[in-house]
Recover the amino acids of this structure.
């Protein structure tokens, strides 16, 4: 069945880091919009003639709460047509047309295994949706460890609320890896160094969820499956490009 398209209006834009903005849209002419935490939508942006030139996917960064408001966390790519449009043309009141929600990068119906969520930059978006979905629904879960990587502290996304979540929930651990800056309360290095050390001993009751750009995902998949010996079925990922 062809997917339905929605119209939404941009209701808020906030600078999150020098290169990242949060966008909030309100869906119009609908009673409800259902999605599962971790899913994405595909926007049709007026940046090309052919549809494949115009379509760009973005993870929904907020937890499903029955409202018609969606949040996206988007990084501006140098030379990127879609993000140039989003960062330079879009303003409060602009219309964004999208289809979705799509994707299977979601939490299992029942979380029975420990989870390690590994991301860089805006790859944190689907994890934020999942984590706050669990919190909102007061769902008990085995340990979850979110490992977020970026270059410098100015690039850390959603830090305060994720630190608060780790304080409130003893089964949630939050680590930040900064590759190009040393600070007292962050790890100096790459995300890979954290999980390879923590989970060097392979066990069946753990799942790894990866989200972000190709280099990070390729390296993490190779580390986990080829180097460390985890089974393919224990590694799930969402590739941004
Ligand atoms: C399922 C899914 C969910 C996504 N969710 C998000 C999200 O929540 N937030 C978000 O910011 N993005 C997300 N993306 C990526 C997004 O769809 C776009 O690909 C991205 O915004 C770039 O689009 P653009 O039009 O600006 O760049 P394009 O015009 O498509 O490409 C611009 C240039 O960037 C280069 N480029 C491609 N990849 C990279 C890279 N990794 N690093 C540097 N340069 C690169 C290309 O070679 C090209 O020259 C998601 C992608 C997918 C598939």
């Amino acid at each position: 069945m062809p997917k339905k398209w929605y119209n939404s209006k941009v209701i808020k834009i906030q600078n999150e880091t020098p290169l990242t903005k949060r966008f909030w849209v309100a869906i119009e002419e609908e009673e409800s919009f259902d999605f599962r935490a971790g899913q994405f939508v595909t926007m049709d942006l007026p940046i090309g003639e052919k549809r494949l030139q115009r379509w760009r996917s973005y993870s929904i960064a907020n937890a499903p709460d029955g409202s018609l408001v969606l949040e996206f966390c988007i990084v501006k790519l140098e030379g990127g047509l879609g993000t140039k449009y989003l960062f330079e043309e879009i303003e409060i009141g602009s219309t964004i047309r999208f289809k979705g929600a799509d994707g299977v990068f979601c939490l299992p119906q029942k979380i029975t295994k420990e989870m390690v969520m590994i991301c860089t930059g805006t790859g944190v978006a689907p994890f934020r949706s999942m984590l706050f979905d669990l919190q909102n629904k007061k769902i008990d879960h085995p340990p979850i460890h979110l490992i977020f990587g970026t270059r410098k502290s100015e690039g850390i996304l959603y830090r305060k609320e994720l630190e608060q979540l780790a304080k409130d929930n003893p089964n949630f651990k939050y680590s930040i890896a900064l590759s190009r800056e040393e600070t007292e309360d962050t790890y100096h290095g790459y995300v890979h160094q954290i999980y390879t050390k923590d989970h060097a001993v392979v066990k069946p009751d753990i799942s790894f969820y990866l989200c972000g750009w190709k280099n990070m995902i390729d390296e993490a998949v190779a580390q986990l499956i080829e180097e460390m010996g985890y089974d393919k079925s224990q590694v799930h990922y969402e590739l941004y490009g």
About this structure: The mean pLDDT is 97.
